[in-house]
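Can anyone check this?
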Amino acid sequence: MYRNGVLEKEGFPVEEVSEYVRDPDNTVWFDLCHPTQDDLGVLREELGLHELAVEDVVSGHQRPKVDSYDGHLFITVYGIHVDDGRLAPVEVDVFVTANALVTIREDERFDIGQVTRRWDATDGTLGANGVSFLLHGLLDYVVDGHLDYVEDIDGRIENLEEQLFDEDRPIDGRALQRAIYELRRDLTRFRKIAMPMREVLGTLLRRNQGLVAGTAMAPYYEDVYDHVIRVDEWLESTRDQLANLRETRLAQQGMRLNEIMKRLTGWAAIIAVPTLITGFYGMNVPYPGYGSGWGFWLSAVLIAGISVGLYAAFKKRDWL
C-alpha cells in the first residue's frame, strides 16, 4: 500500500484491500500468481469487479486487450518467456480501479520482481500518480521484453543469412530448414501477442478514463506506445527477412540442382562418344580397319580425341 507515492505497508491479506482503497490518498497493489476460484471470489467482493472480467481470468488464453467496466478496467498482456529455445508467453491479467492495481500472473515464469525493481528505480515524484504510475511500470516492462525478443529474432535471422552465403562453411540444409521453420513458428506466436499491444496502449491514451489523459504520466505512456510501434515495425521487417531467407534458400537449391543437371548432361554427352564408337566397331560387318590392329588404335584415338575435345568445350562454357 502506497500513500502519496510512499510505500507504507506490505504483506497484508486481500481481505484488507477494501479498507485501504476507501482513502483516495492510498494506492494498493496486489499480486496473485495462479489464483484459485476462492481467491478470485474474495478479490471480486473487495473491489467490486465485474463477473465477466473475473470469468476471463479463469478461462485464460485471452487476446491482449482493454475492457472497460463500471468502476474498473480489465487488461490482458503477455510477458516473454523462452523455454528450451521456444517462445512460451505468460499471460498477465490486470484489474485497474481508481486507486488499486491487481496483477494476476499465469505462473512464476513472469518475474514480477523485475517490475517492482523498475518502480523503485523510477523518480519518486512519479509515484504520486498512483495507479497510472504502477500500470506504466508494468506495461513498460512487458513492452521492453517484446522489444528485446524481436531484436534477438532479428539477430538470429542475420546469422542464418551469413551462413547461407558463407562459402567457407558447408551448409547443413536440414538444420537450416528446421531453424527457419522454428523462427516462423515463434514469430507467428509472437505476432499474436505483440500486434494487439498497439490497440491496448492506444485505448489507454485515447479514452478519457482519468487514468492517463491529462496527467503527468501521459508522456511516459506515449513513450511505451512508441516502443510498441517499433516492435510492430521490426516484427514486419523480420517476417519479410525470414520470407526472403526461405526464398533465397529455395533459389539456391534450384540453382544447385541446375548445376548438377548441367554437369550430368555434359558427362553424359562425353560418355556417349565412346559408346557410339565402340558400338560401331562392334558390328559384325566389314568397316575401315576391320580385322586389323590399326582399326583398334583408330577407334581408341577417336574416343580419346572427341572426348577430350568435348570436355574442353564444355569446360570453357562452364558446363562442367
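Reply from J.R.: I decoded it. The mean pLDDT is 84.
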